[in-house]
Sequence to fold (624 residues):
Amino acid sequence: MAEAEKNLPHDTDAQEGTVRRRDFINIAAVSVAGVGAGAAALPLVRQMSASDDVLAQASIEVDIASIEVGQAIKTSWRKQPVFIRNLTAEEIAEAKKVDVAGLRDPQTLDERTQPNKENWLVTLGVCTHLGCVPLGAAAGEVKGEYGGYFCPCHGSHYDTAGRIRKGPAPTNLVVPEFTFVSDTVIKIG
Amino acid sequence: MSFPWAEQYKPQNPFMQWMDERLPLPRLVFNAVGAGYPVPRNLNYFWNFGVLSGVALMVQIITGIVLAMHYAAETSVAFNSVEHIMRDVQSGWFIRYAHMNGASFFFIVVYIHIFRGLYFGSYKAPREMVWLLGVVIFLLMMATAFMGYVLPWGQMSFWGAQVITGFFSAIPVVGEPLRQWLLGGFAPDQATLNRFFSLHFVLPFVILGVIILHIWALHIPGSSNPTGVSVKAKQDTLPFHPYYTAKDGFGLGVFLIFFCAVTFFIPNFLGHADNYIPANPLSTPAHIVPEWYFWPFYAILRAFTVDFGIPAIGSFGGLTIIPAKLLGVLAMFGSIALLFVLPWLDDSPVRSGTYRPLFKKFFFFGLIPSIIILGICGVMPAETFWLILAQIAGVYYFAHFLIILPIISKIEKPLPLPASITEAVTGKPLDMNAA
Fold:
């Protein structure tokens, strides 16, 4: 120790209430270590999220030319089933005459379809209750009391607009973001 | 675990007192790596590498668990799943490169840790058990590293598995069945990959367990120090925390600078390019080379080119007693097995190489060069010059432990030892009556 350093309060018991140089070094070191640990934790957290190959499948194009009126197809988007249904005039009328205010999840058919394409009902085939796949898309399947979709697992009934009408499901079948690329091709996602 | 001069754990706040009466875990930590563990006051930076090895293992375990979330141990997709980690998984490139280079850095710090022990006589009484457990850890590390290297299922992975499991076929009578049992088939395949993945996942936790025993065994006699002189009083020691936690923290910072420099700027420098070629059971790479940390052992393995036996006389065939292949394997395992008996080969009462002039010469001008030369021979093609060099270095390596060390400990006249650690540090004699 040089003479000059003798008076510096670095290793001595400083008076009550003063900050020693050592306190500062302590706090600084622990702070830097904390930032470092946080930086190291970031990639370990990030790796859990969807990888690029999963994100790359985030949108699909579907050719709907072959779907006749009254028919529906099941396709898969983001590893989830999607129902694409070509509604008949009766089904559209039925969906429109419902009093929206009385629904659990009030939505009109117009809100759930594209303008001038209200016969094309595109919904996720995932029951909003617990995620089962409802029946009603394939020919011969039970369509439920409201002629739309029926989820047999816990008895959720959806109408022709895919809205929840009866049973435990809290919300309507989700309508994914989709656009008409042409009259016969839609892009989902 | 308790020394007369150790600081006692006295929980201050009521909760910690309550805790201490029920589960004295804070007490255990305090006595293991806290102020309750008195450490010689004169440790140099070679004493950082134990903690650094522990940190390196933790890095490997954390990154490894994460990699296992994305990796698939299936011969048809294993290689692609690694590429998927590199290209698609968020931050996957970083995690894999950290794991790849973490393995190398784990070996770097462990080798320095071992050399510290060899030079300063850390294997001598009363710390033989610490040393033996350390050699067990080293063996487990080698097995783990080898199996991990197989998992990406590249060319080096595959042929490494082929060659290393081939060692076992050298064993007389049971060799070939044993090899097939290890591989789960006639050559490395799905069964091999699956079991290696399983073992590669579990062995690090076994290592962790042995490390706990290693530290436990160390804390009975306490840490050694560069003078090799035992601690005589409290003045010879400092509490582990904050003195050595701070020093280890600084060392960790330096270690991380090197580790990050390699991981971020030259991540493939220590690897082999051929492992970016998917495994092909029908074509062998020109040179099958293990990772750098196995080069010296690989050199010993390849140094035996001649069968041991009675040479051929005239036109009669010779009688082979031990074939070269088996000799190489025995020598390679022997080079590690030697470390198990080292505490009883080196009989000198003086621990530290600092006070052993003859030992020091042979250590720095004999043992270390021989290991480095073996390392170089291990990566070079198996041609005459390198084989002869490997044979010379290999002979020295074994002679050093089996012949030179026992002789040195008999004839060497050690330098005078300091009377105490405190005297070595301050130049003033230790005052046994001081507080």
Summary: Strands of chain A lie at 60-63, 72-77, 80-86, 120-124, 147-151, 156-159, 164-166, 178-180, 185-188.
